[in-house]
Amino acid sequence: MENDRSKIKSLWGRNISEIPCFRNSYLYGISTGIAAGLIYFMCTSKIRISSHIAVTVFAATTLSYWTYCRHKWETDENTVALMKELLKDRIAKEGTQIEKMPVYEVSNSQKP
């Protein structure tokens, strides 16, 4: 049991596997960085500049995908929380007189 806990990687006291979007953003960043560095090296044979390009593309891809993924994750979490709240209200009203009341929609369009 203690060996399992010592194998868990942590970053600033947090378990890496519990951080949303961590794995995917680093995998995309590493793969695009390596690809960009190799392509530039194959075209120009300049080792130093190709390594700079690889690191720059890695950083840019990782940060871009991290931002996109976290934004999407946050909106999904907010949607799930809203749906849970609506379902909780629906369950509380189920079988009561409030549920049987007709619901009228208010529209802003005026009919001539």
Overall structural class, as computed from helix and strand content, comes to mainly alpha
User: What general form does the structure show?
Assistant: elongated
Work out the helicity level.
over 70%
The count of helical stretches stands at 4
The major sheet is characterized as: 2 strands, antiparallel
Task: Provide the residue-averaged pLDDT.
Answer: 84
Rg on CA atoms, Å: 25 Å
| Total count of domains | 1
Can you put this structure into words, describing what you see?
It is found in: Mitochondrion inner membrane. The chain crosses the membrane at residues 21-41, 47-68. Its main location: mitochondrion. It comes from Rhodnius prolixus. Keywords: Membrane, Mitochondrion, Mitochondrion inner membrane, Transmembrane, Transmembrane helix. It is a single chain. With 112 residues, this protein is mainly alpha-helical. The chain has one domain (2-93). Helix content is 71%, strand content 4%. It has 4 helices and 2 strands, in the order αββααα. It has a two-stranded antiparallel sheet with strand order 1-2. Strand 1 and strand 2 (14-15) form a beta hairpin. Helix 2 packs antiparallel against helix 3. The radius of gyration is 25 Å and the shape is elongated. The mean pLDDT is 84.
